Amino acid sequence: MSEPTEIRSKPVKAKVRRTVLKAGGTLLISLFSPLPAFASQILAVRVWPSEDYTRVTLENDANLKTNHFIIKNPERLVVDVEGIDLNPTLKSLIAKIQPNDPYIKQVRVGQNRPGVVRLVFDLKEEVNPQVFTLAPVDKYQHRLVFDLYPVNPPDPIAALIEKGQWSLDKPNEPTMPPPVAEVKPPFAEPKPDRLPQVSRMLTIALDPGHGGEDPGAVGRGGSYEKHIVLSIAKRLKAKLEQHPNMRVMLTRDGDYFVPLHVRVQKARKVQADLFVSIHADAFVQPTANGSSVFALSEKGASSTAARWLANKENAADLIGGTNIKNHDKQLASVLLDLSTTAQINDSLRLGKAVLNEIGGVNRLHKNAVEQAGFAVLKAPDIPSILIETAFISNPEEEAKLNDDAYQDRMADAVAQGIRKYFAKNPPLAKGRMM
Ligand SMILES: [Zn+2]
Fold this sequence. Notes:
The chain has helices at residues 13-22, 27-32, 88-91, 93-96, 156-162, 225-240, 260-269, 304-314, 316-320, 329-338, 341-358, 395-401, 404-424, and strands spanning 42-48, 54-60, 65-71, 76-82, 104-113, 116-123, 127-134, 142-150, 202-208, 246-250, 274-281, 292-296, 370-372, 384-391.
């Protein structure tokens, strides 16, 4: 590959030789070969563009070593990957960069020297690259991940306003609702345009589970949980926003992975009044069926099944893949410690209201809101529930989940549950969240 001469990376040959020497059995071969004895194979390449960040994943049969650096004017990210040779799969990356990718203009791929492939990402703006590897998990082998985060990320609310997806609080309106005894239930009226009694905008964070590298559960018919839950969340968003006092923030609006703690952060950034995570359940037995609603628990799960499910959903970060070194561990522990009984009680109330409505759409898996340690429900100051809309592992329910009418009825039911919750539990004034 012809690159400008200003590119200077450390000589890699010596390192490669050392690696090969360490691998005892391959010693003899390596002495006679200019290449590492076992060049790794790139098995798959995937690109997940989003406004948050663009991810490029190289899946391979061994853990790969890399060296990366940024070159300015124009902005480029150069990654040298050791121990691989160029193959058609890797070359296919070039065609996978879409013209509308927010951060990558194009990528060039070439054999830099024997055993080293160089990737050059021509960038649309300054990025903060995170290059890391993920150990094999689930259906994936070794993954080498490049996450390209913008150096100057857009303000989330400003971005929503720009897209026309954010209604502002009306000025000169009281921030406190009138005393409860005098207030009419804000959602008792059937017509959305006649329900302005709520004194401020209510912000709902909707969280479609999984996304990107993490497909979530996969049905026997081949449907992906991540696609179904995004579709239901978008329907629900539209229904909630029919009400002039409600606005909705989606923790993801495309097919990309959002780490669990980032979902919580996003909800807190917009000072959400509620957090509703949307999923589809799965179990080994195809007969398992029904919808369920979960809240956080303080003292352990309400059942073995709930604990099992929480563990499964919490594994999303492993499958979706996060740069652990970069994790804001401190924040994660703060969130954990601050979780309050009040949040859980509110969440249970919200859960009950939603469960009641869902019961009119699908059989309920359990008749009560269950509790377990779901990482995504840990915003200490936001009532948070996780809805398993149905079992994607049950062929009959998988068909329902793919059905527009069912998705719509499910979204209607959740919206109705949320309205009834607010009617009974008038929201507090803003400013309570630090
Ligand atoms: Zn899920």
